[in-house]
Hints:
Helix content is 77%, strand content 0%. By secondary structure, it is an all-alpha fold.
Amino acid sequence: xxxxxxHELKDAWKKLAAAGMPERAMxxxxxxxxxxxxNAMGDIRRQLSEGSKVQSANLAVRLGKYFRKNxxxxxxxxxxxxxxxx
Length: 86
């Protein structure tokens, strides 16, 4: 399974760094609950080992969307916070 969210991650990180790593934006950026140990060893592992390839691909898409959404939101919050301080 591959998550291709590198562009969104880099963009968010630049905005977070420029804004001084605001706490709320960092919390969203760092949220990995969807791939926590219990999820990875439970539902995700079960899906990859027992589910269909189509369902596994759908899981990968859902995870990718989740992380891209979080990175974009974190970047947006960081930028808004940075602009509010100008």
